Amino acid sequence: MAQNTCSFGLLLTITVAISGALLAYSLLRYNTSKPSDTDAYLDKAYLFHERQLSQFNYELREWIRGKEPTAGRNVYYRTAPVYPISRDRFSETLGKLLKTAKASQRKLSQSGDKEYHSKMALNQVYLARAKNEYRVVYTAIERYLKSLAMDRALRLQKFLVDFIGYPENDAVARVNGFLVPFETKIAQLKKIVPLEHHEHIDSYWTDLKRNTTPGILNSCLPKNVGAEEIVKEYAKMTELRVAKCVPLGEDVENGEWLLLFYCILVAFFAWLFILLPILIACR
Fold first, then answer.
1. How far apart are CA 63 and CA 58, in angstroms?
2. In Å, how far are 46, 116, 150, 154, 218 from 38, measured between CA atoms?
3. What is the pLDDT along the chain (283 residues), one digit of tens a residue?
4. Domain ranges of the chain
5. At what angle do helices 116-131 and 87-109 cross, to 10 degrees?
6. 146-168: string of b/e by CB count within 10 Å (b at 16+)?
7. How far apart are CA 61 and CA 80, in angstroms?
8. Closest CA to 59 of 246, 221, 256, 194
9. Residue 257, Cβ neighbours under 10 Å: how many?
10. How many angstroms from the chain centroid is the CA of residue 131?
11. Which region holds residue 179: left if phi is over 0, alpha if psi is between -120 and 50, else beta?
12. Pair 90, 65: CB distance under 8 Å
């Protein structure tokens, strides 16, 4: 009887430890559950974007430096010496990374509308404008500008993915074609908010563009960055393999493996402390 009790206690503590590790991992990692509060959703969507952009920049820099991309590779083989992959293969790798990012945003928004988050952010501006409180309007404007910066960065990432695979002669015209509408939206935003916010809109949008342009450090971009400057930097880094202006980024995927490892490690020590009294009692 006592032996059965000890066996049951052993299995119970192991189950609790494993469940605790998995629960901690699911809570600490980036989950795609949508917050009920709109502002909280917009903040979470932007956090997802920052995380994805950091991984994108990391992969780009590693490829330019002649290393194998880490996205999708087993964590135990990421440090193994490999041959640099070709432009077309790396274009496919970045394309898959971008596709995963878009899927995460769709899952988070629970909508198939590509502009869902920017529409929600603009609606918050209208609601804030109705309250006519400076700080509320100020915050809503920043969230909307961040949503536009997200869309802008995704468009530039898609362009860079294609540009790496096959450089186009009319690259500047293509980039300019999808960047201009964002400036139009900025002009439209100014029409619905008081004049006192216009200067902040200009400065905040300028900083966002320079800080969220995929693959290029803000220090390598002029204040009024345009399509020509962006394409010039992309050509330099992909054709000459110059990584000086590419952000370091972060290997977020590897970070998730480490997070899971730490959760399991903590659960293991917790299991030992729970199990010890049971083992003593069974003697």
1. 9
2. 12, 11, 17, 22, 30
3. 555 555 655 565 566 556 655 555 454 456 778 999 999 999 999 999 999 999 999 999 999 988 755 555 544 344 444 446 889 999 999 999 999 999 999 999 999 898 999 999 999 999 999 998 999 999 999 999 999 999 999 999 999 999 999 988 899 999 999 999 999 999 999 999 999 999 999 999 999 999 999 999 999 999 889 999 999 999 999 999 889 999 998 887 665 545 455 556 655 565 556 655 655 565 5
4. 32-250
5. 50
6. bbbbbbbbbbbbbbbbbbbbeee
7. 17
8. 246
9. 14
10. 32
11. alpha
12. no
Give the whole-angstrom CA distance, residue 74 versus residue 145.
37
> Quick one: tokens of 51?
């995380």
Residue whose token pair is 């979470």: 44
Q: Name the token pair of 195.
A: 């004049």
Here the tokens at position 113 are 């509308």
